[in-house]
Amino acid sequence: MTSLPDPSTPLDEATAYQAFADMLDGKPSEEAIEHFLTALTEREETSIEIAAAASAMRERLIAIDAPARAIDVCGTGGDGQHTLNVSTAVSIVVASLGVPVAKHGNRAASSKAGASDTLEALGIDLDHAGEIAERSLADLGICFLHAANHHPAMKRITPIRKRIGKRTIFNLMGPISNPARVTRQLIGIARPDYVPVYTEALRQLGAEGAMVVSGEEGLDELSISGSSRIGSFGSVDVGERVTPDDAGLDSFPIEDIRGGDPAFNAAALTRLFDGEEGGYRNAVLLNAAGALIVAGRAGGWEHGVVQAANAIDDGAAKDLLARWVAYR
Q1: Per-residue model confidence (pLDDT) at position 108
Q2: What's the sign of the alpha-carbon dihedral 156, 162, 164, 166?
Q3: Backbone angles phi, psi at 276, to 5 degrees
Q4: Is 87 known to sit in a ligand binding site?
Q5: Which residues hold Mg(2+) 2 (predicted)?
Q6: Reduced to 3 states, what is the DSSP secondary structure of residue 322?
Q7: Which of its termini does the chain have fewer beta carbons within 10 Å around, N or C?
């Protein structure tokens, strides 16, 4: 069995890359992997280690072709807030405005309904979605990349992560290991203090433009309840913080966007696209504005909110969802 380096001190790029390449290729023992990941979490990962892990994952994923200006809207999860599926709704809204969205996601790990669970409840066949992803993205401007279909190297890592039972560096990998190899992203992380580290990792990975966001309450998306911390670079420059008021939106308590099981979240998303107002709508509008800024389609927060609201109110988002569910 291949040995892993001592993770008690920061690893250089080459050492970190080789460690993750070996783990994904199944070379170290499961016990060695478990010890390495646990110790790395306790010490806290550096941007170099995050970028190296993502590079190793990217080399082993099953990729799809995507338009040059496609984006992804994705959160790392793990915030413990059990909110409705904001990034999923945002992806549909933004795609209905003509921005290609290669949505990467998975089943719930710590929440009751991940993107995969809710889309499945809405009628999306996850296995079929992987088979038609390129066509769907080209024809409809949106696709769903169910992580299990595109990351075969994670099959050995998944049970080890479950055995560890708490966050590891692999919780950070989903958004930066998109099979469409997007270079523009809106990414939510559940750790406001970690925004600069994660932003620097994205920069090292060569992203063209990105916005990394975290609600101050530890939310892995822009908060509709208060201030959110932001990291951005490249084609995106929006400052370090934003509030709903900055986008011309009313704030709502986090309780107003609490989610439930997949059926509950799917029903809420359906009502949203039918015109229901409230906290969920405003959370989607705020995050959609961020996604439109990332895509180069909005000049600021209020401009983005107006476009997103129009996409919901004129039925474009609802129509796209219906066409996506029916697409074969």
Answers
A1: 60
A2: positive
A3: -65, 135
A4: yes
A5: 220-221
A6: helix
A7: C
Contact 208, 234 (CB under 8 A): yes
Burial class (CB in 10 A: 0-12, 13-18, 19+), 101: buried
180 a known binding residue? no
**Around Cβ 98, how many Cβ atoms within 10 Å?**
11
pLDDT for 23-32, tens place per residue?
999 999 999 9
Whether the CB-CB separation of 103 and 97 falls below 8 Å is answered with no
DSSP code per residue over 94-133: HHHTT--EEEEE---SSSS--HHHHHHHHT--HHHHHHTH
- Residue pair 198/47 in contact (Cβ under 8 Å)? The answer is yes
85 marked as part of a ligand binding site: yes
Residue 79 marked in a binding site: yes
Say whether 177 counts as a known binding-site residue.
no
Cβ–Cβ < 8 Å for 227, 243: yes
Task: Calculate what percentage of the chain has a pLDDT beyond 90.
Answer: 86
Q: Is 161 annotated as a binding residue?
A: yes
* Residue 232 is labelled as binding a ligand: no
Q: Does 268 show up as a binding residue in the annotation? A: no
What pLDDT, in 10s, does the model give residues 83-93? 899 999 999 99
Q: Is the CB of residue 27 less than 8 Å from the CB of residue 2?
A: yes
Query: Does 220 carry a binding-site annotation?
Result: yes
Is 313 annotated in a binding site? The answer is no
Q: Is 76 assigned a ligand-binding role in the annotation?
A: no
Phi/psi of residue 71, nearest 5 degrees: -125, 170
Q: Confirm or deny that 133 is annotated as ligand binding.
A: no
Nearest Cα to 283, choosing from 296, 263, 268, 298?
268
Domains present along the chain, CATH in parentheses: 71-147+181-326 (3.40.1030.10)
Known binder of ligand: residue 221? Answer: yes
- Tell me if 83 is assigned to a ligand binding site: yes
Residue 86 known to bind ligand: yes
Tell me which H or E stretch contains 283.
helix 279-294
Is 78 a known ligand-binding residue?
yes
Residue 76 in contact with residue 171, Cβ under 8 Å?
yes
